[in-house]
Amino acid sequence: MSSIAAFYGGKSILITGATGFLGKVLMEKLFRTSPDLKVIYILVRPKAGQTLQQRVIQILNSKLFEKVKEVCPNVQEKIRAVYADLNQNDLAISKGDMQELLSCTNIVFHCAATVRFDDHLRHAVQLNVTATQKLLLMASQMPKLEAFIHISTAFSNCNLKHIDEVIYPCPVEPKKIIDSMEWLDDAIIDEITPKLIGDRPNTYTYTKALGEMVVHQEGGNLNIAIVRPSIVGATWQEPFPGWVDNVNGPSGLIIATGKGFLRALRATPMAVADVIPVDTVVNLTLAVGWYTAVHRPKSTLIYHCTSGNLNPCYWGKMGFQVLATFEKIPFERAFRRPYADLTTNTITTQYWNAVSHWAPAIIYDFYLRLTGRKPRMTKLMNRLLRTVSMLEYFVNRSWEWSTSNTEMLMSKLSPEDQRVFNFDVRQLNWLEYIENYVLGVKKYLLKEDMAGVPEAKQHLKRLRNIHYLFNTALFLIAWRLLMARSQMARNVWFFIVSFCYKFLSYFRAPSTLKV
């Protein structure tokens, strides 16, 4: 039996961010491989009128947990939902719940975070820094705690080209940032934010770096490890390929391209797309939890969970594979024919944004107004372009992450553990993974029925014909106007026609002689 799976048997585990993408997959893997674990505590906030238990049932009703219900039929009884709000300084946990968490918890997986790139600094600090500080304080009061695993991001130090498995200091101490958020008003915070984040692209990467500093400074004598995943994508193998339930990262780009909204992206085709499957991140995280608890390293170890240095995939290759998959498995009710232009030319990108994005959106909204419906396409395009602009930093750069600790951990695993908790990204076939990713977005995120693929292909064919017809008509109109206004254009046209006539005459003459 797997040593890692056996380790989690009988354990009481606290997971923050369990309702998020990574948290769900982590919880699923724990139940599937260690069904005899004692309990998983999840910090949950009621949402949309649902009780805590209703949110748990909603999570378990997902296709993700189908296999879990076979090996652990009483899975619902083993999930203890605890009311908490990480936006509150005291986390809003009741005294009774707090006492239970402090007295029973063996392992903490801190996955909760805001991943919004454009989040206000105050909110990002609260979730990514202050909440981490409060959880560390809780952990220091847990007598049975064996390991505290903090999920950060490989991009916490994206202002560096080469990133080692160390915690890099921030210019301003996290405590000072936390304290200042208490009394500064929003206007002043907005003004100082660019100066604070410096050469980092957004508040997300900046506050994740601050969170790591908090872990380093306030971890005390706790057994702590930090996992830094890169761009987390759909599942590779477990519990089945292609599962995804959010629009972050590549998923949003896939939807926008498949539906025809996104036509151009200012990207570097040979930049490394450092995507890592979510099940790979989970397998490494669970292995790190086991190693940290059992071997008790003398210092906080950091593990990079990245793909670029071991099995790189490039944005250009990924884009072409996504488009190739659309030809086989198109999305339903696409707005336009899926097409993507990856270019590093700013002028070209601006031209495409104006022509390929705005013109059809304005025309479509005009049509909606005529039919008495509310226009929405221009607003949607606004949001899409804002998201794309925030991603441009990451699709135009490549980073080098050292993976010494990750490789060391892999060498410590038995063959059975390496099989059950596989995080060796060198085995990943990118073409197969991307195809499953697109298929997963269609099935699990957009909830589209595969029975509709033939109809979607016909719709795609019509869109392609309209696209060609529109481009041809546009070219002919533009050329006709140019001919009417420019003598040079008429001379060029005359030269082309004359050249073609002479060229055809040259080949016709030899054939006439043979006769």
TrEMBL record:
Alphabetic keyword roster: Lipid biosynthesis, Lipid metabolism, Membrane, NADP, Oxidoreductase, Peroxisome, Transmembrane, Transmembrane helix
Name listed for the protein in its UniProt record: Fatty acyl-CoA reductase
Family named by the database record: Belongs to the fatty acyl-CoA reductase family.
Presence of the UniProt keyword RNA-binding in the record: no
InterPro entries listed in its UniProt record: FAR, FAR_C, FAR_NAD-bd, NAD(P)-bd_dom_sf
GO cellular component: peroxisomal membrane
EC number: 1.2.1.84
GO biological process, any: wax biosynthetic process
Topological relation to the membrane, as annotated: Single-pass membrane protein
Species of the source: Myotis myotis
GO terms for MF: alcohol-forming long-chain fatty acyl-CoA reductase activity; alcohol-forming very long-chain fatty acyl-CoA reductase activity
Domain Fatty acyl-CoA reductase C-terminal: 357-448
